[in-house]
Amino acid sequence: MSDAPERESMEYDVVIVGGGPSGLSAAIRLKQLAAAAGEEVSVALVEKGSEVGAHILSGAVIDPKALTELFPDWKERGAPLETAVTRDRFLMLGPSGEISLPMWAMPPFMHNHGCYIASLANVCRWLATQAEELGVEIYPGFAASDLVRREDGSIKGVVVGVVGIGKDGEEKPDYQPGMELHGRYVFIAEGVRGSLAKQVIAGFKLDEGREPQKYGIGIKELWQVPPEKHQPGLAQHSFGWPLDDKTGGGSFMYHFGDNYVAVGFVLHLNYKNPYISPFDEFQRFKQHLSVRPHLEGGRRIAYGARAITEGGLQSVPRLSFPGGVLIGCSAGFVNVPRIKGSHNAMKTGMLAAEAAFTALQAGRGGDELSEYQTAYESSWVYKELKLVRNAKPLWSRFGTFIGIPLGGLDMWTNQLFGFSIFGTLKHGKTDAQSTGLAKDYKPIAYPKPDGVISFDKLSSVFIANTNHEEDQPAHLRLKDPSVPISVNLPKYGEPARLYCPAGVYEVVYDEQQANPKFVINAQNCVHCKTCDIKDPSQNIVWTTPEGGGGPNYPNM
Question: Among residues 419, 429, 503, 398, which one has the least CA distance to residue 460?
């Protein structure tokens, strides 16, 4: 490709990458503070999805704590928190039955009283309208593909809007070099395992002295069921079947809105058996007697998947770097036992905005906002994550049936006495390093989908409304193209063909069932980033495709 022409640039006080809960809350808080002080602060927010909310997927039972701080009058403003939780159920599933666990035995913060079932995508769409009314410039369909640095190495901005490069790397007739958005501070709010976040974490060694980040894959479907099946306000969670004791994960099922049932499955990505297919475990789970009756007679209207940060307190990196900060799931503030993170994401965005506004008032820019780190460590986000810090490592270490009760005991001692008998446990391995060898396991024969309750990957991807411009460089890159067949296939059975929930990766053979080839169907990608996390050789690198590509999630 010929040398790209010099890009135009636009200057802002703050540039925010990502239109999720944290990025939008940060933008709104900056504008609120500026208005209260009678000052002007220019804020630009870029979102790689075709619209704000297009790539947002969550359960979601939302704790409105942060939203109430941001907009005390959110109900009057019409925030789409649709259905208050009225009934909590927590189940342990066996192959043909269930045990309902008593909610009174769980710490108070595990109860969902005061929380709301909603579409987080629609909440973000609503937040975007509030942000625009305050003067935030929002640019959907613009992928931030690279960082811009100052001479001293600090982050100055991002490159957005590069389009028109073909698979061969040559410029097409519609080539646009994009432009640079410069900010006195840059907020990275890309969500889980973002490509720019990976760069700044590695480049500034923000994870030094921290435990490796841990992840799960969350797969979700939205169903519309007959009115007689609908139980608005029901929040049901489970663990156990179809997973074995050594494989962590669980489910959620929420009744809300217009006869909607959100059903989902989370599988911890530190699983060992390389033959596990998270997608097929989810389809099998829906056939359970505690789940299928809720869906029968209904129709599946949406599907999606995304990775979830699960490392908790031990894995949160340093939050500030020269010129910017990490907020929301770019840093990882999910409370794993509660299966909630949007309230923490929003609050960290607000904390970063407050630190940045004070710095801007002092005439600063391009330096490190260490005040944000201090504010986080004094916040209710930090306190909440500290209470549950051992739940994930205890589960990983002792398995489901011992680890979960130990985690419950640990949460109670933290809640009542402010200490843990375990101290602060470590995670140790990355999820990629946890993958076992194929020779130690047997392939799993999953049931064929019935097309009524369970489905195949391709029909699922179709209703995720996933689309990519096919003639663009692959956003799923192999560091070494030979590794999938020469290393991963003989050693691990090439698990990419199984852990991907969208059928992106295949191993295909010739007519003699020989000469295997590794095929990447990048157009199917739903941007869950599981491959970037779980590949045992760490050979797959997820990078952002052209803006507007990927899924378009309605009501997810």
Answer: 503
Residue 9: its H or E element: strand 8-17
Examine the domain organization and report whether 247 and 358 are in the same domain.
no
End-of-domain residue from the set 268, 286, 310: 310
Torsion of CA 143, 149, 154, 158, to 10 degrees: -20
Give this prediction's pTM: 0.95
Give the count of domains, the chain: 3
Letter for the amino acid at 72?
P
351-364 pLDDT, tens digit each:
999 999 999 999 99
Q: How far is CA 164 from CA 167, 251, 304, in A?
A: 10, 41, 27
Question: Helix, strand, or coil here: 38?
Answer: coil
546's enclosing H/E stretch is none
Place of tokens 């001293």: 152
Domain around 143: 8-71+122-210+317-387
| Terminal-to-terminal C-alpha distance of the chain | 39
From 260, 281, 310, the end of a domain falls on 310
- Together in a domain, 134 and 266: no
Cβ atoms within 10 Å of 111's Cβ, excluding its own:
16
Q: Is 50 a domain residue?
A: yes
Q: Are 192 and 529 in contact (CB under 8 A)?
A: yes
- Is residue 235, in this structure, part of any structural domain at all? yes
Is the same domain home to 493 and 508? yes
pLDDT in tens, 293-346: 999 999 999 999 999 999 999 999 999 999 999 999 999 999 999 999 999 999
